[in-house]
Amino acid sequence: MSEREKCAKCESTRIMNDVRVVGNLSESLGIQVQKKPRAKVFKGTVGVNLKARVCATCGYTELYAVDLENLNQVHNRALAGELSLSESTEALSIEDRLHTVNNLLEKGLINESEHAAKRATILEEV
Asked: How far apart are the two ends of the chain, measured CA to CA in Å?
């Protein structure tokens, strides 16, 4: 039996998957990311519901985001948009900013020319 089929706390195999998680017994709970987190208004919130995996023996519960790929894409795009190297990244060290720009290139969120331009902007401030 795989570890995934057992409770992480008591190792029971009595697991309930895809249990709906609700707040105030009406709406499904979820998580949200914003397309434009620095905007004053119209942040463009995108959300996904949460599902639970519950142990029927001890009650241990794990939460999982549904449609995680969509949430991740929006989050990565928001991160790329935030990296205009404005005040949102000025608080970071030069090394951290370079690391972040390199990560964006590796994830395919920016191309080589955008990467070079962002690196040059960072290094000009040194």
From this structure: 56
